[in-house]
Specification:
By secondary structure, this protein is mostly helical. The protein is built from 9 helices and 2 strands, in the order H-H-H-E-E-H-H-H-H-H-H. Helices cover 76% and strands 3% of the residues.
Length: 249
C-alpha cells in the first residue's frame, strides 16, 4: 500500500513538473512573441517618421543621417533605425556610403526631369481610366476633396500649415482618382511614385508658387472625369504634373 502511494506521488510530481515546464516554455514563447511585436512596431514607427520628415523637407539632399543620433531622437536602439535606413535606401530616398554612414540621396537635374516625364504619363493614364470607370460615389468623393482644397488659400493659418494640408489633401484626391479606376495594380504601381514626387517637389521645386494654380487644375480634372472626357482629362493631368517639374536647380 505504501509502495503504491509512493509511486502515485512520484507520478504526480513528474506530471506537475511537466506542466510547469510546459508553462515556462509557453511563457518564454509569449515573451519572445511580444518582443518581436515590439521590435516590428518600433521599426515601422521609425521608418514612417523618417520618411515623413524626408517628404516634408526636414532632411535636405546630402544631409547625413547618423544612426546613433536618430536612435537617441526616437528613443530606440540602433537596429530599428538601421532597418528604416535600409528600406529608405531601397526606395531611393537615402544612400549608404560604405564605412562612412547614410545620407539623403542627391539627384541630378536630369534625374528629376526624367522622373516627372515618366510620372506624368502614369498619372495621365490613371486620369483617363478614371473618366471611363468612375462611378457616382467616386465623383462625389472627388468633389468633396476638391472643395476642401479650394478653401486652403482662404485659411487664416501659417503658410507651413497650409502646405501640409495641401500635401495631405492632394494625395487624397489622387488616391481617390486611382481607386476610381477599379484597378488595384494601377493604384499599387503609382503609390510609390507619388512619394518620390512629393520628395522632389519639396526638395527641388516650390509648392507655394504653384498651389492656387494646382487647386484650379484639380477642379478641371474632376469636371472632366465627371463628364467622361477621357482624352481631355489625360491632357490636363499630364500638364498638371509636368508643371511641378523644376526648371533648373
Amino acid at each position: 500500500m505504501a509502495r503504491s502511494k509512493l509511486v502515485q506521488s512520484t507520478n504526480e510530481d513528474a506530471s506537475r513538473q511537466k506542466r510547469n515546464g510546459s508553462s515556462a516554455v509557453q511563457l518564454k514563447q509569449k515573451m519572445r512573441g511580444s518582443q518581436r511585436s515590439g521590435e516590428v512596431a518600433a521599426n515601422s514607427q521609425v521608418y514612417a517618421t523618417v520618411k515623413q520628415k524626408l517628404l516634408e523637407g526636414h532632411y535636405l539632399p546630402g544631409a547625413w543621417l547618423p544612426i546613433d543620433d536618430l536612435a537617441v531622437e526616437f528613443g530606440v536602439s540602433r537596429q530599428p533605425v538601421m532597418d528604416a535606413i535600409k528600406r529608405l535606401t531601397i526606395e531611393g530616398f537615402v544612400e549608404i556610403v560604405p564605412q562612412v554612414g547614410s545620407r539623403v540621396r542627391q539627384y541630378s537635374s536630369n534625374d528629376v526631369s526624367d522622373f516627372f516625364d515618366y510620372f506624368s504619363l502614369g498619372e495621365s493614364h490613371i486620369a483617363r481610366t478614371s473618366a471611363i470607370r468612375a462611378d457616382a460615389n467616386d465623383i462625389m468623393e472627388l468633389r468633396l476633396v476638391s472643395a476642401q482644397l479650394s478653401v486652403l488659400p482662404k485659411l487664416k493659418v501659417s503658410a507651413s500649415e497650409v502646405v501640409a494640408l495641401y500635401r495631405s489633401l492632394n494625395r487624397k484626391l489622387h488616391t481617390v482618382i486611382s481607386q476610381s479606376t477599379k484597378s488595384p495594380i494601377l493604384t499599387e504601381m503609382v503609390e510609390g511614385l507619388r512619394d518620390k514626387a512629393d520628395f522632389f517637389i519639396t526638395t527641388y521645386a516650390s509648392l507655394d508658387a504653384r498651389m492656387e494654380d494646382a487647386i484650379s487644375e484639380h477642379e478641371e480634372i474632376v469636371d472632366a472625369i465627371e463628364r467622361r472626357e477621357a482624352d481631355k482629362v489625360a491632357k490636363i493631368m499630364e500638364a498638371h504634373v509636368l508643371a511641378f517639374k523644376p526648371k533648373v536647380f
